[in-house]
Write a sequence for this structure.
């Protein structure tokens, strides 16, 4: 059985801009069972000004497995935020900017997946206080 992989918003946006989303999905699908986060889809949709992009996001939602944070994952995310504030002395404004990434990390860990991202900085910080798998590309 293939390991699950969840592409992050930063990874997908890069491929949206280059027009390489389909090729990337095909390449990833050789090694991973691709799963999407509803948080990532929300972030993508918020920036999808063109109908073509909106249709692609709808196709992803309708044709792939989509995970959504559970009540427990929201609770875990709150604990991660608190730990980052206490242990890493991260300011409240920075923490608010990490909410989506923290939710994604908690969801990814619970399904035993690896997160694929271009956002090494934020996920490396989260990993300092919460163990989950991610691959920075």
């Amino acid at each position: 059985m293939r390991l699950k992989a969840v592409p992050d918003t930063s990874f997908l946006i890069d491929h949206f801009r280059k027009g390489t989303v389909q090729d990337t999905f095909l390449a990833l699908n050789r090694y991973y069972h691709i799963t999407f986060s509803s948080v990532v889809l929300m972030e993508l949709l918020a920036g999808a000004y063109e109908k073509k992009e909106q249709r692609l996001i709808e196709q992803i939602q309708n044709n792939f497995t989509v995970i959504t944070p559970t009540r427990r994952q929201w609770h875990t995310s709150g604990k991660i935020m608190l730990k980052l504030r206490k242990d890493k002395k991260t300011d409240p404004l920075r923490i608010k900017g990490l909410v989506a990434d923290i939710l994604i990390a908690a969801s990814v860990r619970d399904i035993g997946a690896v997160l694929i991202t271009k956002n090494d900085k934020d996920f490396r910080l989260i990993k300092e206080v919460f163990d989950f798998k991610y691959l920075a590309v």
About this structure: The chain has one domain: 3-136.
